[in-house]
Design goal:
The chain is mainly α. Helices cover about 70% and strands about 5% of the residues. The strands form 3 sheets. Strands 1-4 form a two-stranded antiparallel sheet. Strands 2-3 form a two-stranded antiparallel ribbon. Strands 5-6 form a two-stranded antiparallel sheet. α2 runs antiparallel to α13, α7 runs antiparallel to α10 and α11 crosses α12. The longest helix has about 35 residues.
Length: about 500
Amino acid sequence: MKNSQSHKSQQKLFFFFKLLSWYYDRLFISRIMALVSVLNFGLVLFDLSYIPLRDIWLNGVITVGQFKLGPYEFNGIQLEIVPKRLREKIIQYDVIKGIEPYRDTQLYLEEADLLENTINQYGLDNEKTKEILKRLREMSVDMIREDPFRLANKSGTLEIIKNRMREHMNNYIDNPDSSSTFAFTSFWTVDNLENNLYGQLGFFNREIRPLINTNYWRPIGENGQFVDYFGLLDFPFIVIIFTDFIIRCLVISLRYHGVKFQDAIFWRWYDLIFFLPYFRWLRIIPISVRLNDSKLLTYKRIQKQISQGFVAGIAGDITQIVVLRIVNQIQKTIEKGSIEQILFKEETKEYINLSGKNESAEIVKLLINLVVYEMLPEIRPEVEILLSYIMIKTISESPMYENMKNLPGFNNFPDKISNKLATQSYQIFLNSINGILQEDPIFEKHLEKIIEKATKTLNLRPNARYDINKIEELLVILLEEVKVNYIQQLSDEDIEALMDETRAINN
């Protein structure tokens, strides 16, 4: 009975694992989750940009080309980019950001509406109209003094309102102090409105009202931050992405030996960015990975360009460092007197011969073998031509030949004799060298004596050590000049040329 229950449990676990593996391996599921992530990121971007762009969503208008330079000013061109029906829907997002109409500025606009209605019903000289105008003057003074735009970080908008009203009223009143308060209180008077009622009210509705309407109130929560309900919109996406994250981590831990669940979490570390309460714009990182994994977008070319750009950026420095280290090491070796130690072995500690051979003699012998058997036979035609030319030139320029060249049979004498002499001379030289290079212990003994005698000569010569030291000093200076003139001036063009060759090979 227990075995039967255990078997059923194993079957259920096996089926569960197969289901999770099927979910993990399905490309269309990866694509769905990638699209969900993109949709969530789009919502994040809209939320982050909503406050900065709220004026556009509210009025649907942007001003292009506005500038002020000293006495020159251009108000720009206003373009309506968002239809009214659409912006009425978008502006409902105020609820999510906790935005409410600011009471004082809202009352100001309502008072202006009441003024228009009262004028239409009772006229401009009515007592009710004059009472409303008085309240508008008082509210204008309070608005300028108290700055109700400060909480929304829109004090700049109030400055624009004051400037526009001041510039407008300069055409109707004498305002030597350029007082915006005097401009507003003069605007809301019967004397100002009766001259051009609809023009003045049209200016207010067109230039002032939209700016006042952008002000808002935003309450502060118990955490000291502005009230924001974006988390309610974000939460369903986070639940879906978190579920997908847990499933994928679980499959990774079950599929790969030695990988625990916590290891799998770090395996997909980039998904953890989704669950950060702040810096939501960083979600672009896991979204990019998911889009690449789902093959909706591939970043191979981008990755290639980034990596090549990175390599190009550091290749010069790396090359410089490596070459400089080599040159520096050579300099240090020379400064320690290594050349002197090699040439003056007898004055240093006893030389240890590890191989039992004279390496110097062996090296000379190998070099001679390389030259005689590999190089000299290959360059023989060219050498013979050169020898022939030298002999022809020597014979032709000799005084003896100048006297003999007019004799019969001596006209082509230099060509004939030089060709034969060149061929025979080169062959004699090769035969001599080949004979010397045959296994000849006596030759090797003489060669060792020559090398040993050369070394002793250097030791016995009075100025030899001074000359060697001078050579070492000159070599150190020469290497320093090489560093300054060549190594440290590796140009970007050189590195870019190398990178271009690399790209050509890879393609």
